[in-house]
Specification:
By secondary structure, this protein is of the alpha+beta class. About 45% of the residues lie in helices and about 15% in strands. The protein has helices spanning about 10-20, 45-65, 85-105, 120-125, 160-175, 185-200, 205-225, 235-240, and strands at about 25, 30, 70-75, 80-85, 135-140, 140-145, 155-160. Helix 5 (about 160-175) packs parallel to helix 7 (about 205-225).
């Protein structure tokens, strides 16, 4: 597959050596007969090339022209979402995708695969059965069928619970190891961590969730400061008025068009 775009034999031999290099476990080199080295810098690149031919091109050239309605594929690394106008196209895609993957020694993670109704008609159809549209998570976001201020359909994206838990676990672990840093230094580092979180998740509709994350980080920080001494006077009413305890609020950084 790489040779379709790269003709340089030196590059191709180098990639071949990389694939045959094996892995080291407990100081012992283990030879591998298939796959790419886990953790190797070339592995995600080769995985993208492989899925480009196995999935992306197959979907565009072979499967999509056979669909009776609109069909789209959105992929990032090995995570992807396929959207179809008609349910029968989605069911056919699921069936043929399993056979396609089997030809290339891949397998679909069935426990992570779902077929669900989503879109502007989902709420009305689900309401007939006194139910709500299902949600799904993709790339750290929870996708919800909602509406904008004018009442029109809008796909709302908010940070998933898993993404928030992972971030808060990182901040908690960092505070545990840097409890005795100066307060201003702690503030600067936590500000950088929150800015990085906002940079990815600060979409429209996300501000309430991001404000909750900010508040939780402040609570973690307060508990870490209290552990410095048993005679602390660091109560919430006191800390929230201190300039050194302030952390940045989220602002929409990726406005919708």
């Amino acid at each position: 597959m790489v040779a379709h775009r790269i003709a340089d034999p030196v590059i191709l031999r180098l990639i071949g050596k990389w694939l045959r290099a094996g892995v080291m476990q407990g100081g012992v080199v283990m030879r591998t007969a298939e796959g790419t080295p886990q953790g190797g810098p070339i592995s995600p690149v080769l995985a993208n090339v492989y899925l480009h031919f196995v999935l992306d091109l197959w979907f565009e050239k072979k499967f999509r022209p056979l669909c009776q309605g609109e069909a789209y594929l959105t992929r990032f690394a090995d995570d992807f979402v396929a959207s179809f106008q008609y349910k029968r196209d989605a069911e056919a895609f699921h069936r043929k995708l399993s056979m396609r993957f089997e030809r290339f020694n891949l397998a679909l993670a069935e426990e992570k695969t779902r077929l669900l109704l989503c879109g502007r008609f989902a709420r009305g159809r689900k309401a007939e059965y006194a139910d709500k549209p299902e949600t799904f998570e993709f790339l750290g976001f929870k996708h919800v069928c909602g509406s904008d201020r004018s009442g029109k359909f809008a796909l709302i994206r908010i940070p998933s619970q898993k993404s928030c838990r992972q971030f808060l676990a990182r901040t908690k672990e960092w505070l545990k190891g840097h409890r005795h840093w100066k307060r201003r230094d702690q503030q600067r580092y936590l500000t950088r961590m929150l800015d990085g979180f906002y940079q990815y998740f600060a979409l429209h509709h996300c501000k309430p969730k991001l404000d909750w994350v900010r508040c939780e980080v402040q609570r973690q920080w307060m508990r870490a400061l209290r552990r410095r001494s048993q005679r602390h006077r660091l109560f919430w009413s006191y800390l929230k008025s201190r300039a050194w305890f302030e952390l940045p609020y989220a602002e929409t950084r990726h406005p919708t068009v």
